Amino acid sequence: MPTLIRLLITLLFLAGLAYAGMIALISFVEPTPKEVTVRIPSRDFLGGGAPALPGSAPAPAAPEPAEPAPAETAPDGNEPEGTGANPSAAEETLPGSP
What we know:
Elements: H1 2-28, H2 42-47, H3 87-91
């Protein structure tokens, strides 16, 4: 048991020295402010999108959306069954109308 207590006291003493060193750094060292300039390439500034991480390749540009396919029609010019508006909805009438 005395060995354990001696170990704990030694570790506490070392932790106290580290803490005292940090306090000394805080009170005696003054940081010197300086101006920092970061250049941003115009391609990154105007490109938009997700920012690239330092050291990684820039993200590829998003592909342009394709034009929608033309609607299919039956040979008689009408839309095929199952597409377009609901046929039963065309027959509905509003209350008060003939």
